Amino acid sequence: MSSGSEGAPAVIVSSKPARLFVVLSGLYVTNALIAEFVGVKIFALEDTLGLPPFDWRLFGQSGSLSFTAGVMLWPVVFIMTDIINEYFGVRGVRLISWLAVAFIAYAFLFAYLAIALAPAGWWVAVGSARGVPDMQAAFANIFGQGLWTIGGSITAFLIGQLIDVAVFHHIRRATGERFIWLRATGSTAVSQLIDSFIVLTSHSCSVRSNGRPACSSQSAP
Fold first, then answer.
1. What is the pTM of this model?
2. Where along the chain do its domains lie?
């Protein structure tokens, strides 16, 4: 191998900005992927904290404080977005956003392929003692999220990223280089709220096992 071909990778590896971008991108994509898969679980915030039901009412609708488990990780993703935005600009955010979408779609594709594999007979009943009589059904229900959920998650992710970047730069224009905590916190809070709303709406619009759509606005935060 020629020294010229070795030089380019060496320059990238030895460059502190390049290493920082790789590390931040890795954290970003990893957290986004985990959030997509654990996000299939909807939890009640009040029950988790041992509080009475909040019973919110807005525009004639009501509900409890229900969120996807992905909210544990999405703030990390949006914080990574703000850091990358701060040091590498909009182009850097766009690059990792599209990479993350591609990897999420890739992961869901292989999740569906794994579901389609014929399960070993002994494995199907291996969880019976733990209250899981059919491991194949459990696996399919957890990893085989409906198209509404997948589409909603990816849509929410992209919209959240666009809003995060827009709010971040709006606050930056207003405050200059000061108050980095304000633009990071403000953009993350707004994008997280909208992301959660879209994801929960897509969850409530998922198709039930009998094939009928089940859109319900009451599960939205």
1. 0.70
2. 7-41+66-215
